[in-house]
Amino acid sequence: MDGLTEMLKGTLEGCVLQIIGSEQTYGYAITRRLNELGFTDVVEGTVYTILVRLEKNGLVEVTKRPSGQGPPRKFYALNDAGRDELTTFWAKWDYVAARIDKLREGGT
Amino acid sequence: MNLWQRMTGSDLTREWTAFEARAAALPADHRAAWQQIKLHLTASHSDFTGRNLLPIADGALGLLEETAADGQSVREVLGDDIAGFCAALAGGEGAPSYRDRWRDQLNRNVARKLNRLGG
């Protein structure tokens, strides 16, 4: 779906954490995964800025591996702080999603 | 960084020359994107010396190199919002710009004058 950028802000970081949490991976593969999920607006630059932030906040372990062509690729894996952050993200998500569903159903 | 480098910025010139050499090896559209990125970064997110931009520019150039090697187009990589990309990068680094410094300075001066009036 197009035009989701605004709505995704703030949740995309959690999505990237989740993807890294399930397997050690690199920027391009993360972007592809998000595109496959239907987030077609997401480009590699967006993911790159998130990865820079995650690295700076000490939530990921980074290893460089040679790629077939070009410069070595950076692979990302969650560390303990990253796993904690991911748990917090899903807790926040559940909270927001539950409230918004409630609002939509006309509850109080 | 020694005093001479701090005063003249000679180390910066050397770093940027190295960046340009790397950029020259990129395909044309990636090279054009690099020009855009430099423009946005230096116009909006540079401190007085521009030293804060070195790691950011290095990373952005690395991204262009990686994606060029993968055969991705610049549009696939950066979309159509290079300014937004630069803002997110520089913001992620928490890099204060010269505007922040001016704003701080102005706020301090106003606060001081107000205090004087009040006292």
TrEMBL record, chain A:
Domain Transcription regulator PadR N-terminal intervals: 16-87
InterPro entries (UniProt xref): Metal_resp_DNA-bind_regulator, Tscrpt_reg_PadR_N, WH-like_DNA-bd_sf, WH_DNA-bd_sf
Pfam family, any one: PadR
Family annotation (Gene3D superfamilies): Winged helix-like DNA-binding domain superfamily/Winged helix DNA-binding domain
SUPFAM superfamilies: Winged helix' DNA-binding domain
Database matches in PANTHER family: PADR-FAMILY TRANSCRIPTIONAL REGULATOR, TRANSCRIPTIONAL REGULATOR RV3488
Protein name: Transcriptional regulator, PadR-like family
Organism listed in the record: Kribbella flavida (strain DSM 17836 / JCM 10339 / NBRC 14399)
TrEMBL record, chain B:
Gene3D superfamilies for the chain: c-terminal domain of poly(a) binding protein (1.10.1900.10)
InterPro entries: UCP029876
Phylogenetic lineage: Bacteria, Bacillati, Actinomycetota, Actinomycetes, Propionibacteriales
UniProt name for this protein: DNA-binding ferritin-like protein (Dps family)
Species, as recorded: Kribbella flavida (strain DSM 17836 / JCM 10339 / NBRC 14399)
